[in-house]
Amino acid sequence: MTTTSADIGITQYHELAAAVRGDLIVPGDPGYDQARAVYNAMIDKHPAAIARCRDTADVISCVRFARRHGAEIAVRGGGHSAAGLGVGDGALVIDLSLLRSTTVSPADHTVRADAGCTWGDVDHATVKFGMATPSGFVGSTGVAGLTLGGGIGYLSRRFGLTVDNLLAADVVLADGTFVTASQTSHPDLFWALRGGGGNFGIVTSFTFRCHDIGENGTIIGGPVFYDLADAAEVMHWYRKLHPSLPEELSGWIGLMTVPPVPPFPEALWGRKVCGIVWCYTGAHDKADEVLEPVRTYGSPLMMGMQPMPFNVLQSAFDALYPAGLQWYWRADFFNEISDAAIDVHRKYGAMLPTGHSTMHMYPIDGAASRVPADATAFAYRDGGWAGIIAGVDPDPANADRISQWVRDYWQELHPTSAGGAYVNFLMNEGQDRIKASYRGNFARLAQVKERYDPGNTFHINQNIQPASQPSP
Ligand SMILES: Cc1cc2nc3c(=O)[nH]c(=O)nc-3n(C[C@H](O)[C@H](O)[C@H](O)COP(=O)(O)OP(=O)(O)OC[C@H]3O[C@@H](n4cnc5c(N)ncnc54)[C@H](O)[C@@H]3O)c2cc1C
Question: Residue 425 Cα, ligand 1 centroid: separation in angstroms?
Fold first, then answer.
């Protein structure tokens, strides 16, 4: 008879508690509700246990325990998955959030980050040396999940995606063994980890290439806001301008509400706007020339660009989006911001349902688009954008309203897209969407899955099934 997670008793979990250095939290323990919570408060899952691992040995113990007893495994890095993939009902959650050390090598231009780090941890460590590795646009996001899905951020245009800067990963495999994956060691696994998500093993640490940025880590960046009434004109200008800019300058465009807090001018609090958040990482004596088209365009309501350490820009949104809000989002890739798409943005921008709800278009161009589509598992290298529509609010009573706005907006925008979406922006949308996102890389991913996880032990993720068990 097969054992299921639900059949595993407290005695067995005592066995695991004795084997690990970290805490094992089970239902009824005082910290259980806090430990099972993830960033998105819409997710309400009840795992059988949460193992807060202290080191790689703890992770190995958890995987071997799960294998022995047939327990389902969920893996949690930063807990930011909006789909709630860092936790599972009845599962053993292998929680890496205590593994947060970083080691910078200024001589080698590398940083090694444990799998429980947030990007805020890594940026803090590298910026002091005037360096950064490409990550995202938010400091509180987990290094692990973001990296394994691809990693799109301010530095992608100049230096590629996060996965394009990954040099090595330490991985606990489904059979409880440990390997280091790199170009020369388990290259097939290394290929799959760079975009294939948590399907192939549990990464316990990552080593990234770093780059000198700005002047000793100080960049020039920040938001520029335009009246929502000007959104169509701004989008037309931006879509033409962005590809022509030097790669030291990158900006994502969105629709949003000005937060009612300093440093935003009080006169703008609560106003719906079209915003572009810019980041210029080049030499400061060239900044006036490079930023001139941005500084002279249109009639901005606010021009918030200024010199700041890179990690300050990276963490600028952290306090505005704390853990515990309701989140529902939908996404797509876009080769262009078409006239038809702009009409849809204007319509739904005017209906932003709550102050936190927003739409963002993140460029995947420049260096990120020069990497061949089959060089890593991350397949979208067409030089366009990753778009996301996010309904967000603190009040659970608004969950349906924000979700419906997202679904309606996505439904109308989707026909203008390139097909597929950034896997880190998918909800639980089924195999067709996962396949569309991986494009021509899907079959190879299924083969690597077959080799490293033939029993699909790691399936609480955007799941790629082993080649011998193709999905329906
Ligand atoms: C506010 C916010 C801002 C964001 N901004 C960006 C952005 O700028 N750029 C961008 O690219 N993405 C962004 N994202 C998306 C983000 O990349 C994903 O949500 C990602 O999954 C978060 O990683 P995590 O470790 O925090 O998530 P988790 O919820 O912990 O994990 C997500 C998935 O990764 C798996 N996983 C986690 N850790 C490991 C590990 N060590 N080994 C194996 N599998 C693991 C989990 O099992 C799960 O399937 C953002 C998300 C949010 C909520």
Answer: 9
Q: What is the pLDDT of residues 96-117, one digit of tens each?
A: 999 999 999 999 999 999 999 9
Q: What angle do CA 260, 313, 272 make, to 5 degrees?
A: 30
What's the distance, CA 155 to chain centroid?
14
Q: Rounded to whole angstroms, how far apart are CA atoms 392 and 394?
A: 7
CA of 197 to the centre of ligand 1 (A): 9
- The binding-site residues of ligand 1, defined as CB within 6 angstroms of any ligand atom, are 38-39, 75-82, 85-86, 96, 115, 136-138, 141-142, 144-146, 148-149, 151-153, 197-198, 202-203, 321, 424, 460-461
Distance CA 290, CA 141 (A): 30
Residue 444, both tokens: 């190879």
Token digits of residue 434: 């996962």
The residues facing 143 across adjacent strands are: none
The length of the chain in residues reads 472
Q: Where do the H-state alpha helices sit in 178-226?
A: 187-193
pLDDT tens digit sequence for 294-346: 999 999 999 999 999 999 999 999 999 999 999 999 999 999 999 999 999 99
